[in-house]
Amino acid sequence: MSADEATEHDAAWFDALFAAHAGAVHRYLVRRLPAGDGHRDEAEDLAAEVLATAWRRRDDVPAGAELPWLYRTAGYVLANHRRKHRATPVAAVPEEPDDVDPAALAVTDDAVRDVLGRLSPRDRRILLLVAWDGLGGDALAEVLGVSRGGADAALSRARARLRSAWQEAEASAASADDVEQGNRS
């Protein structure tokens, strides 16, 4: 590492990183933790852990892609946090963290929750990183740990599966309505 790179990631760099992204990291975690008493405090603690990791690993944080790096780290911190609260056999630990549980999402629309629940954890994660966290392009690729083309393809496939799941949900609802009206007749 050169002397210029060493000064890039100093206390002033971290202060700027914190000011720019601490709120986004906190919101990311709040949306992914189960609602209930203390979940905001829990999110604050986890956000602090993510930012402490950024300070400890400051030389690994890529310039210009700080927020995607923080989101990726937050996903790992959240996965570790969840594992602490339940016994999981090592063989059952997934390669990629599923940091989105549709039952715990802060989504009030039952239809949206139902459709998201029909998707794979990876598709939900991709769609929510784009919709909630405003990621796209290179930032999405960084969080997913894939190339830009891979991220674009994954997003396209996730959107197609979302459309399909939405159409299936609408068809199911229409069928249920027809049965209900038939029972009234």
Automatic annotation (TrEMBL):
Residue span, RNA polymerase sigma factor 70 region 4 type domain: 110-162
SUPFAM superfamilies: Sigma2 domain of RNA polymerase sigma factors (SSF88946), Sigma3 and sigma4 domains of RNA polymerase sigma factors (SSF88659)
Gene3D superfamilies: 1.10.1740.10, Winged helix-like DNA-binding domain superfamily/Winged helix DNA-binding domain
Keyword Magnesium: no
Keywords: DNA-binding, Sigma factor, Transcription, Transcription regulation
Coiled-coil region: none
Residues in RNA polymerase sigma-70 region domain copies: 17-87
Alphabetical list of Pfam families matching this protein: Sigma70_r2, Sigma70_r4_2
Domain of life: Bacteria
Protein family according to the UniProt entry: Belongs to the sigma-70 factor family. ECF subfamily.
Protein name: RNA polymerase sigma factor
Species this protein is from: Isoptericola haloaureus
Lineage: Bacteria, Bacillati, Actinomycetota, Actinomycetes, Micrococcales
